[in-house]
Amino acid sequence: MLTPTQDRVLTFIRRYLKRRGYAPSLIEIAEGIGISSKGTAHRHVQALAEADAIRLIAGRKRGIELAETAQMSKLSLPLLGIIAAGQPIEAIPGQDRLDLADYLLGDNRYALQVKGDSMIGIGILDGDLVIIERCDTAEDNAIVVALIDDEEATLKRLRRLKSGRIKLIAENPDIPPMIYAAKRVRIQGVLVSQLRRY
Amino acid sequence: MLTPTQDRVLTFIRRYLKRRGYAPSLIEIAEGIGISSKGTAHRHVQALAEADAIRLIAGRKRGIELAETAQMSKLSLPLLGIIAAGQPIEAIPGQDRLDLADYLLGDNRYALQVKGDSMIGIGILDGDLVIIERCDTAEDNAIVVALIDDEEATLKRLRRLKSGRIKLIAENPDIPPMIYAAKRVRIQGVLVSQLRRY
DNA sequence: GTTTACAGTTCTCCTAATGTTCTATACTCT
DNA sequence: AGAGTATAGAACATTAGGAGAACTGTAAAC
Description:
DNA-binding, seven-stranded antiparallel beta sheet, homodimer
């Protein structure tokens, strides 16, 4: 992997970057590890870039970025693994960060707070937040925000019947499904994710 | 990434803005960093805008805003209101944006994927992600990641018994609660939020 | 409404700092 | 010895930063 000298260079760059906010020049690196040739420093830096420990911005002064930093989007958390009753936490192979933006953010998305227990069967509880992506069509069986008669908005599972009518299903055995003529139902968005705070 | 000089300019702008409440002019910036040319100051400011460190309001004197303030919008979604079966979407008064960072991000937090149905009673399903905040104590009745005998990690509701022992409760009627001596149980973190993608 | 001071914009010219490439040499292993 | 690594230092190319002039636009004073 890295040679001892390369490791010292990398450590120096890390510290410098943390303290000053910008990368060291080659001369500073050379001084930092106790050599006098910037040409040599240049070779170490090239080697580090080759090993993907850092990224270089070509033809830019102090154009060094740590590979680690590039990995971490601002909206991410470490993803430790899978937890299950009766077993130690098990790492998820090949994935160690969770990009929350991916789950939540998007151009046409908005949040709604859920009131009531009509979707309790799929784990959407009273007070939960749901993220909705605006759109006017949806696949069969998707969970949608539907507007009925331009009056009532509701979060339900959508099913198209052969008759052409539309069935809106609450995920709650106590609430019977409702069937409407297609004209009466307008889709406002599709459920993309869900969020709860404890 | 910022150059050393750009960094100094940014620092100066920050301080100026904090002290005076409005942004510095180009001449003031030039003086502030010890140069005499406002043309040069202008170039630095342009570079900072390019790097998204600040935002410029075109054709306005002292029209500089720090990006940090505007940055928050990247972590938020419009919060339209409350949706309930049988009613139109109702706006939530005094709140129109949802700050996701608030829900999810934090210094000592990490994510776990849930396996199994042991917490189905409170709407945590197989495959959901939970956000855990690292800590070694928890309030009674909190949902925690507990390590039993340093071997098995599990997500359960915690309850302390008068006997001093600890009861770990699965939110699933099919899974009976377990009772352990306090020594055998170590808390690794507390559930702070939960996330699901559809 | 005109004037005026202030501020932003766009240039060009210049210099020092820095990155890049090269050759020659030395050290340390097996 | 030969491969791999490290160093020094020279020569050259490019970039970042600076100075200052000339111009344009803004806002407040008159």
